[in-house]
Amino acid sequence: MDKGGFIVENVGVPPDIEVEQWPADVIKGIDPQLQKAISVALDELKKNPPAEEKRPALPVRVRK
Question: C-alpha dihedral over 11, 13, 17, 21, to 10 degrees?
Answer without folding.
Answer: -50
